[in-house]
Amino acid sequence: MTGNRREALTRARRCVVKIGSALVTNGGLGLDRGAIAGWAAQIAELRRRGIEVVIVTSGAVAAGMQRLGRPQRPHALHELQAMAAIGQMGLVQVYESAFQHHGLHTAQVLLTHDDLTSRPRYLNARSTLRTLLGYGVIPVVNENDTVATEEIRFSDNDTLAALVANLVEADLLLILTDREGLYERDPRVDARAALVEEGEAGDRRLLEMAGGSGTLGRGGMRTKVLAAERAARSGAATVIVSGRMPDVLSRVLAGDRVGTHLRPAQGRLAARKQWLAGQLQVRGRLTLDAGASRVIREAGKSLLPVGVKAVEGAFGRGEIVACVDPDGREIARGLVNYGAEEARKIMGQASDRIEAILGYIDEPELIHRDNMVLL
């Protein structure tokens, strides 16, 4: 390690591991049960160390192609959906069987682009994944290819993995591929090309080094570099590395200099709050009492319903609202945990009354401090 640039990886407590089609299907020969069992064993060891893991797996379409003996990836939407439906059955069975050997449960989570662009569905997906992690279950995420109503693509599962890293606020996105990492030039063309060991996510020069896409999946090194840039928006680091390397997950999390490490420019909380501060449009307004205004401004506390005197606007859960003091001055803004109608019902009430008033409780705070920025 030089300059301790990978030291932060040793402190990662939540990781998203993306496994590409070429690895899952052994280069298109069929689902590689041995390889999947090996990654499951590594992930089981991470779980024993208290590290939470979400898997984003490719391979459903490729597995379906293999089952039907189709050498070429189809282009028609209905054929892609059929291949995904066929392949998904075997893919999930292999993951479930591999983790059962270690006493771990898995859960299949299928997402579409709409799930991550619709704010309510985004929040529901986040809650589901966090609950699964809380249960000690390994979520196995894939794109919901079989119900796509437009061309099947997030553009690729690298993008999906980055969005999942944002969704669960992961510390690390670990992209397993069939190459050692990002090279300065394509090593298949230039054998002297050097591996890029360190870089900063978002550096435009990295895209110039990345090549085209693979034949089995839709991603290539370019999509992985772009995924690192997306993951960095929530402060996650990315490591692009060969999934065939022995003990690769443990080695990355030990800070070993393997693969390509792309650092975020900012930490998770700083990146999130910068995004919040840059949002120009707020959907509503919460008027706080003097006590709530003071603890938010001076102590950086979360906003509880008891400190709210008035609610304005027609905002939904997860939208950005302004927080104003009794004199009408905006002191903060943040992502609200309850919609406007719910907020009106629980304002001025203690958090332990939320369930009795609404019939349910999502969070004890109206706005959590991690989702709030002071102005």
TrEMBL record:
It is found in: Cytoplasm. It comes from Sulfurifustis variabilis. ATP binds at residues 18, 177-178. It is an enzyme of class 2 (transferase). Belongs to the glutamate 5-kinase family. Catalyzes the transfer of a phosphate group to glutamate to form L-glutamate 5-phosphate. Substrate binds at residues 58, 145, 157. This is Glutamate 5-kinase. Pfam families: AA_kinase, PUA.
